[in-house]
Amino acid sequence: MYSGAMATQDRLIESTQELLWERGYVGTSPKAIQQRAGVGQGSMYHHFAGKPDLAAAALRRSAEQMRALAEERLAGPGTAYQRIEAYLLREREVLRGCRIGRMAQDPEVIADPQLRAPVEETFDWLRGRIAEVLEEGLAAGEFAPGVDPADTAAAVVAVVQGGYVLARAADSVEPFGQAVRGALGLLAARRQT
Predict the structure, then answer these.
(1) How many other β-carbons are positioned within 10 Å of the β-carbon of residue 47?
(2) Inter-residue contact 159 to 183 (CB < 8 Å)
(3) What angle do helix axes 30-37 and 2-23 make, rounded to 10 degrees?
(4) Which residue has the higher pLDDT, 192 or 127?
(5) Which residue, 20, 134, 184, 189, is the most exposed by fewest CB within 10 angstroms?
(6) Per-residue pLDDT for 150 more than 60?
(7) Which among 93, 49, 86 has a CA at the least distance from the CA of 71?
(8) Hey, how many other C-beta atoms are within 10 angstroms of the C-beta on 94?
(9) What's the whole-model pTM score?
(10) Does residue 119 contact residue 63 with C-beta atoms inside 8 Å?
(11) Chain centroid to CA 183
(12) Is the pLDDT of residue 1 over 90?
């Protein structure tokens, strides 16, 4: 019974993650979640108090997954530049946008502190983690003095999020690629030789 309950709960969360990514909060109805998860209304309300509770669980899981993907690259082998490059160049579903970044554009999510929290915390973490990598690079003499890790990390995150927006607007991955190449070029220009 326990594993069946967990399987149902996981299906509900995974279905909500996908629907939030596709449709946003308002466009994700409890009925659509139930249909996608293959569960009845009773099962949904057995595990979650309502749509906001389920959406918060889905956003937390999406945030955890995003952090894990970023950490794989940022904690990987190589110089600070190479690790940031690996993060920027990792495979992404560019035209779908960022699961977390898209929620920052959803007025219902931003208006609700419970729903906004995983979005805000994820971007805070990401900026902080990239700043740590840049600080390591500065300490190792990889970057020229004067590189501000916090400002540069904020720029890297903004490039990724802005790249998603530009790509979706053009219905092409190329604007995302241009943004990433531009960021890497700017970062490379600050490297010590």
Answers:
(1) 19
(2) yes
(3) 120
(4) 127
(5) 189
(6) yes
(7) 86
(8) 20
(9) 0.90
(10) yes
(11) 18
(12) no
Phi and psi at residue 143, to the nearest 5°:
-110, 150
Cα–Cα distance for residue pair 76/83, rounded to 1 Å: 6
| DSSP state letters, the chain | -HHHHHHHHHHHHHHHHHHHHHHTTTT--HHHHHHHHT--HHHHHHH-SSHHHHHHHHHHHHHHHHHHHHHHHHTSSS-HHHHHHHHHHS---GGG--TTGGGGG-HHHHH-HHHHHHHHHHHHHHHHHHHHHHHHHHHTT-B-TT--HHHHHHHHHHHHHHHHHHHHHHTSSHHHHHHHHHHHHHHHHTB--
Question: In angstroms, how far is the first alpha carbon of the chain from the final one?
Answer: 61
Closest by CA position to 1, among listed 46, 33, 52? 46
DSSP readout, 14-45?
HHHHHHHHHHTTTT--HHHHHHHHT--HHHHH
pLDDT band of 41, cuts 50, 70, 90: confident
Q: What is the distance between the alpha carbons of residues 149 and 133, in angstroms, rounded to a whole number?
A: 8
